[in-house]
Amino acid sequence: MTFGAAISYNFRNALSLSGRAPRSAFWWFFLFIYLVSFVTLTVDMALLFARGGSNWITLVEDDAAMLAWLQDLGENPWRFYFQTAPVTWIWFAIALVPLTTCGWRRMQDRDRAGWPFVLVLAILLGVSIWGMNNTFALYTDIFANFDLGLDAPVPPVDDFIDDWLRLMSTIMLLSAAQMIIAILLIVWLASKGTMGPNRFGEDPLA
């Protein structure tokens, strides 16, 4: 299956769990999502600076404003994510549906049930969301307390080290969990399908 055919195939079958999908259908579409995300991120950055360039300058020059902004980010990190990259988040939400159903059919191409793929993908997304929420809050706490030239009392160095070690351990644990899950998904999705018909349908490459 070619690059263009894989894109068309996945959007046409976005809501279908029946049949089988070859490796090319999944990985060409995955590459397409990755490439489009570069475009959406570029658009998001252009929009961000177009509507808030002066606000960024104010934050850099005003320690109190920067502190208030960091504290707000620590309490509402997802508002920051959605405000800074709305186009990219919309694109990911759109692309996730056909990618998930294609992964389901990819499992069936190997004569396996599709639900383990969805379960592991959900775990990966859950771990990533948890990590984005918690690590961002730790970052903002640390830098709000130590990197701004405010008149407030500086917390003890031991507290800073404890916060930093907690942040690093969280990132390492998160990265290890994501890597293990990603390797499992790659093995499943990169494995060759069964030759000829199986219980889920005809060989898509026949």
Features:
mainly alpha, elongated, 7 helices, 206 residues
Question: Short summary of the structure?
Answer:
With 206 residues, the chain is mainly alpha-helical. The chain has helices at residues 3-12, 23-61, 63-75, 77-84, 86-109, 115-146, 157-190.
Task: Describe the fold and architecture.
This protein is mostly helical. The protein has 7 helices and no strands. The chain is 78% helix and 0% strand. The chain is elongated. The N and C termini lie close together (12 Å).
Secondary structure elements and their pairing?
Layout: H1 3-12, H2 23-61, H3 63-75, H4 77-84, H5 86-109, H6 115-146, H7 157-190
| SSE string, helices as H and strands as E | HHHHHHH
Distance between the termini: 12 Å
Question: What is the typical, i.e. mean, pLDDT?
Answer: 82
How does the major sheet shape up? none
Secondary structure class reads mainly alpha
Portion in strands: under 5%
